[in-house]
Automatic annotation (TrEMBL):
It comes from Desulforamulus aquiferis. This is Cobalt-precorrin-5B C(1)-methyltransferase. SUPFAM superfamilies: CbiD-like. InterPro entries: CbiD (IPR002748), CbiD_sf (IPR036074). The lineage of its organism: Bacteria, Bacillati, Bacillota, Clostridia, Eubacteriales. The keyword RNA-binding does not apply. HAMAP family: CbiD. GO terms for biological process: anaerobic cobalamin biosynthetic process; methylation.
Amino acid sequence: MANLNSRLRTGYTTGSCAAAAAKAAARYLVSGSECGKMAISLPRGGQVELKIDRLERGRDFCRAHVTKDAGDDPDVTHGLSVIAEVSLTDGEIILAGGDGVGLVTKPGLSVPVGEPAINPVPRQMIIEEVKKELPPGAGASIIISVPGGEAIADKTMNPRLGIVGGISILGTGGLVRPMSEEAYRHSLTPQIDQALALGYRTLVLTPGLLGVKKAKELGIPPDAIIETSNFIGFMLEECSNRSVEGIMLLGHLGKMVKVAAGVFHTLGKLADARRETITAYAALEGAPQEAIFSLMNMNTAEESVEILERYQLTRVFDRLAAAASIRAYRYVHEKFKVGTVMYSLNGQVVGLDNGAKEMGGKLGWKIS
């Protein structure tokens, strides 16, 4: 475990591991030179050295193994072996995916359908590093494998993105910076591009898996459902930079109430106005003093369902849904329509606005 009092250790992307392995295999194949470490160039400048765990020579190919080291980042690919097999050809350099590397099956990603899920930057890194080792005019066949990749793919975004059979070879900078919020946010945006490529212009944004499940239960097409995690504001901005025509926000009432209060990064330790917001809207609806007292003393936002039902004030949730939509609409500078749906932990829809009804109808949802 990392010492929290010291600087967290940087790791390497699967793309860097693949590039180092491919370069080491090419060098061994061409010159017979074995190496314990291999230096590669980073996309943003500079070099790093990665440890080569094993080299193998076949009849007309060589393989190199590099163990993925994510540093102190909780990366699910940490510890996997990234293997590159290289053989010489008379033509161009051809890059393929082997065991544990996923295959792209849906449009909208940076890699075409039918190709291995090796993203453009690591693809370029691998090819450029291998070129440095080849004789003039020679080509190469490179196969990247990640044994065990298929088993952990369900812990990544790949199943949602239509990438089957394994993980993706990723990395725009070549390094894994521990707990990188930026990297996590940008791992979410391909969902938007894919939905647009499949013809959807009205999308459903939801913070997590419970929201995904609820959206599917309502009959919303799975390819129109976008996970945002806590980054609702960031994902709204990303949608505003694309040809999106409408957004339905769908989530547990606790998250949607935060949006109604103008909180667009919904991690609890950053901002939390749920209790005060629900109480204020209840007061505007004429809630008696005892109801206001109960709401201001809630331990969780979920308790508001029972309290507002008791005082026949459940319309407060519809008002909150409308307020969340207005906040989001203004947040994206009125570039597209926004509607909001909120539900309780038992899955009951407790609040929605007219925008949600309109967009839900377009998406063919089943709601009364």
